[in-house]
């Protein structure tokens, strides 16, 4: 890989400190061991007051619009949310409503979530994965879910969760080391036009 992978890490947590922030940061840290990366963090807790009242992309504050543009141009996304009422946060969805619906086609995404107990673990497959399927993204097969008991003072304390992070990153590497599928799609267009 000649240049660093452009990674955007999004945490849907609304409070600080946050287990979701800690989980997303741990995933990015593990990824940085395997690949040269350039990371931009987007923490909803930092932008919530300015984001909540915006209803049009053209009305986004400059710094939030810059986050949206970074997501749209990313090579890889790490996306996590805490679970509220069985789903991701409303502000998390509101934020992604501003992302252009065609900008994430074929973008690989590693999904993560945190919740109070194991009973919310399916949020990754039943809530997050359908959202990014709408964007036609490549949601990676292994997500990472952590519960309250996996953290002490907002740091991961569970070897099983750390192992899950390592497994998810290792399984992501083949997707990240291959040529960018979005560029490959552009190269295939002249061929498809001949059919």
From TrEMBL:
Family recorded in the similarity comment: Belongs to the SsuE family.
Entries under NCBIfam families matching the protein: FMN_reduc_MsuE
One of the record's GO molecular function terms: oxidoreductase activity
PANTHER family: FMN REDUCTASE (NADPH)
Superkingdom of origin: Bacteria
Protein name from the UniProt record: FMN reductase
Annotated SUPFAM superfamilies: Flavoproteins (SSF52218)
Keywords, sorted A to Z: Flavoprotein, FMN, Oxidoreductase
Keyword Hydrolase belongs to the record: no
Encoding gene per record: msuE
Span of domain NADPH-dependent FMN reductase-like: 6-149
């Amino acid at each position: 890989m000649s240049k660093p992978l452009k990674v955007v890490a999004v945490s849907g947590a609304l409070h600080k400190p946050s287990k979701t922030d800690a989980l997303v940061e741990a995933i990015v840290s593990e990824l940085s061991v395997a690949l040269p990366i350039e990371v931009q963090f987007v923490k909803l807790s930092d932008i919530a007051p300015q984001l909540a009242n915006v209803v049009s992309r053209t009305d986004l504050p400059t710094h939030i619009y810059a986050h949206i543009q970074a997501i749209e141009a990313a090579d890889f996304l790490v996306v996590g949310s805490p679970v509220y009422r069985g789903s991701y946060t409303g502000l998390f969805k509101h934020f992604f409503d501003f992302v252009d619906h065609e900008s994430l086609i074929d973008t690989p995404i590693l999904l993560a979530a945190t919740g109070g107990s194991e009973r919310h673990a399916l949020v990754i497959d039943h809530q997050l994965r359908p959202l990014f399927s709408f964007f036609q993204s490549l949601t990676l097969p292994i997500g990472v879910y952590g519960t309250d008991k996996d953290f002490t003072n907002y740091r991961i304390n569970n070897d099983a969760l750390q192992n899950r992070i390592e497994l998810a990153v290792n399984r992501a590497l083949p997707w990240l080391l291959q040529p960018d599928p979005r560029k490959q799609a552009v190269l295939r267009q002249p061929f498809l036009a001949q059919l």
